[in-house]
Amino acid sequence: MEGITAGAFCTVMTRMNLVQAWLTPFIRVSEGVRRPARLRDRLRAFSPLPMVVQIMGTDIPLLAATASRLAAEPGVVGIDLNCACPTPIVVANGGGGGRLRHARWIRDALLALRAACPATGISIKVRVGLESDAELPAICAAVGEGRPDFAVVH
Q1: What is the pTM of this model?
Q2: pLDDT of residue 55 exceeding 90
Q3: Is 58 exposed, middle or buried (0-12, 13-18, 19+ CB in 10 A)?
């Protein structure tokens, strides 16, 4: 989705009434919480439709603070935690699909997002495993304990 679902594409899809809501490409959360103006710039292409904003990172407090800031933006109806990106550089840095190795982290992150955004939908994107589908039971247990509104298996 990154690089495609932005700018003119979103404008045309919205103006032609071809979509009713957007799931944004991920926002990488790694060094701090972005300022509201920078987040608004990132979301501008998806406005005025409702948005579920996808975030990705490894630091739970930063993810929760970013989610809280995003949830305060007009049109944001949900926060989606990306634990599925298989890109080697992302996984090597522990993000995206690399989080699948840490089931407890998945649970804790979902619970932190829910606490930070009690009135906003919370979802998660996962894979059946990073290296094997034998990882799926632990992933499912962690997701279940984290109690998202929905989960997507990528």
Answers
A1: 0.92
A2: yes
A3: middle
What is the rounded CA–CA span in Å between residue 102 and residue 108? Answer: 10
- Could you tell me if 90 and 125 are in contact, meaning their C-beta atoms sit under 8 angstroms apart? no
C-alpha distance from residue 116 to each of 104, 111, 125 (Å): 18, 9, 19
Examine the pLDDT at 4 and tell me if it is beyond 80.
no
**Burial class of residue 88 in the structure, from the number of CB atoms within 10 Å of its CB (0-12 exposed, 13-18 middle, 19+ buried):** exposed
- Beta carbons of 97 and 127 less than 8 angstroms apart: yes
